[in-house]
Design a protein that fits this description.
This protein has 350 residues and is an alpha+beta fold. The protein has one domain: Malate/L-lactate/L-sulpholactate dehydrogenase, NADPH binding domain (Ribosomal Protein S8, Chain: A, domain 1). It has a seven-stranded mixed β-sheet, sandwiched between helices. A three-stranded antiparallel β-sheet has the order 9-8-10. A two-stranded antiparallel ribbon has the order 1-12. Strand 2 and strand 3 form a beta hairpin. Helix 1 crosses helix 2. The longest helix has 19 residues. Keywords: Oxidoreductase.
């Protein structure tokens, strides 16, 4: 295992922006993407953090991601819109979609935006937090590349098909569930492969359908849905929600940029926002959600601590506002990226 290293958040943010602007991404879009990736690292979701930057850079270089997209909204029924993201960075497409959900929900009480021709959008809570701050409950999902076999199968049909649910709260931060519908995020397979570590049991099968903890074999084989046949059913339905409303491709129709960075993946995203102000009122919803959060936290016995959904990530972020500890392999890859692009590398110490 390569030793971990600690970096200053501001140095890392500067570097991410430098890399993306070197690939012709406009400064505002680069800064948005940097905030998304770094927040994921701060929250300990390294599979969706700066580990992804070399992949984004290569996809931008080869055309899999369009640095200067001409995105186009099409308005549907009241409260509904679709967005053709023109192969944009997923963060750029999602910010436009979230902004439109906020606009439409403010007048309609509920809104949905379906996105196609997009790419990986980072951690879903980055988007649900924005909606929660405005008093919206949210449901967010996305299609991805093909990495998951349905329950009982051995062929990669599905993506990791993330599901993010968020509700605004009066108690510090939103109530949030942000998860892949595979037993682990695919980025964690890449991280384990880079670090030379093993996967947890039950995450993957090899190309012959045999259980494996080897990330190399897992990448050649398939991830496994969480929750057996029930989790598999959720993953299948989320694929339908994310990709059937627009011209987005299903995972089994997609060439992942992990396999070919020149591929325009045509990911689909769906964002649904429910404005609490249109129901019992925003203050009422925030208060009720805070009551639920605290009841969950108080459910332990003795000195046993119970955390409400979203608590671990926010606690980690609050402890990592100045510095982040990254995997050694990520630091090494960022250093190689700096060399390739003739940029100042991120200072770090072990």
């Amino acid at each position: 295992m390569i030793p971990q290293a600690t970096v200053q958040c501001q140095d890392l943010a500067r570097f991410v922006v430098d890399v993306l602007t070197a690939r012709d991404v406009p400064a505002n879009d680069a800064q948005l993407t940097a905030r998304s990736l770094i927040q994921a690292d701060q929250r300990g979701i390294h599979s969706h953090g700066t580990l992804r930057l070399p992949l984004y850079s290569e996809a931008l270089r080869l055309g899999g991601i369009n640095p200067t997209p001409s995105m186009r909204f099409t308005q549907g029924a009241a409260g509904v819109a679709t967005l053709d993201a023109d192969a944009a960075l997923g963060q750029v497409a999602m910010q436009a979609a979230v902004d439109r959900v906020l606009e439409l929900a403010g007048s309609q009480g509920i809104a949905a935006v379906a996105v196609h021709n997009s790419s990986h959008y980072g951690a879903g809570a980055f988007w649900s937090d924005q909606l929660g701050a405005a008093g919206l409950l949210s449901i967010i999902t996305s299609s991805t590349g093909p990495v998951v076999a349905p329950h009982g199968g051995s062929t990669k049909v599905l993506g990791t098909n993330p599901l993010t649910l968020g509700a605004p709260s009066a108690d510090g931060w939103p109530l949030t569930a942000d998860l892949a519908t595979s037993n682990g995020a695919y980025g964690k397979v890449i991280a384990a492969k880079n670090e030379g570590t093993s996967l947890p049991e039950g995450w993957a099968v090899d190309a012959d359908g045999r259980p494996t903890t080897d990330p190399v074999a897992a990448a050649e084989g398939s991830m496994i849905p969480f929750g057996g046949h029930k989790g598999s059913a959720v993953a299948v339905l989320l694929e339908a929600f994310a990709a059937s409303l627009t011209g987005a491709t299903f995972a089994f129709e997609t060439v992942d940029i992990w396999s070919n960075p020149a591929s325009r993946m045509n990911n689909g995203h769906l964002i649904v926002g429910i404005d609490s102000a249109a129901f019992g009122g925003s203050d009422h919803t925030r208060s009720r959600v805070a009551t639920l959060q605290q009841q969950v936290r108080d459910s332990g016995s003795g000195d046993r601590t119970v955390q409400s959904p979203g608590d671990p990530e926010h606690f980690r972020q609050s402890a990592s506002m100045e510095t982040i500890t990254l995997a050694g392999s990520t630091v090494r890859q960022l250093a190689q990226l700096a060399e390739d692009l003739s940029l100042t590398p991120v200072p770090s110490h072990s």
